[in-house]
Amino acid sequence: MKHEGAAGAIPGKLKSVLYGKSMDSCSFFSILCSLNNNCIFRGFMLTAFPPPGSTFQYSDINYMIVGHIAEKASGLSFEEFLKQNIFIPLEMVNTGTGYFPSENPQLAIGYGPEGNKLQEGLSCADMGYGAGSMYSTADDLYKWDRALYTEKLVSKQSLEAMFIRYHDTYGYGWWFSDTGRGFIPVHGGRLLNGTFSGFFIRNTIEDTCVIVLGNDGFHDEKRDFAMQVTDALMKK
User: How much is the pTM?
Assistant: First the structure.
């Protein structure tokens, strides 16, 4: 997933549904996921601009398409595909897809920057599809980090391809940060307008990993803190 020719145009069907509505990201994805898959993919794949392979343009929609491809290729739901191929083999027991706080009391409650709770009963189970809709813990994500130094999940050849910088700061699903001693893979993410966010740094130069997760809406602060910790570890 190099994002070379991202699907960028909202098709007419979606425009007619979304036009004139003010909504957060949860509402947008709820509507998006309620539409027929064929409508979504016909619309978003009609036009790719600029031409594929000519430039870089990050797009969450690309990951939504990847989720659909994984289902078609495996014959499994995207959730079951992740379970069988990543979560279960790595014993990531506190990782899954969907967000149902009323059904799972162990899930963190989200808070806005002003300290206000998310709306009671709010769920975004389908939000993001292949581009999100996951929950995890630092411990589980560290298991994933360790596995990426082995061939437990994918072959050595695939791992090497994953961590090639195809653009100045991006590879296959990873951003790259210049530490002054080399580039290291990093990635951040956020859901519900940034209420839930996190930043993940794999310092492959020194074999360290920094994971910062939060539920209070301060995404940029988590990114900055993760980078500061990484810098401090490299200066030891």
Answer: 0.77
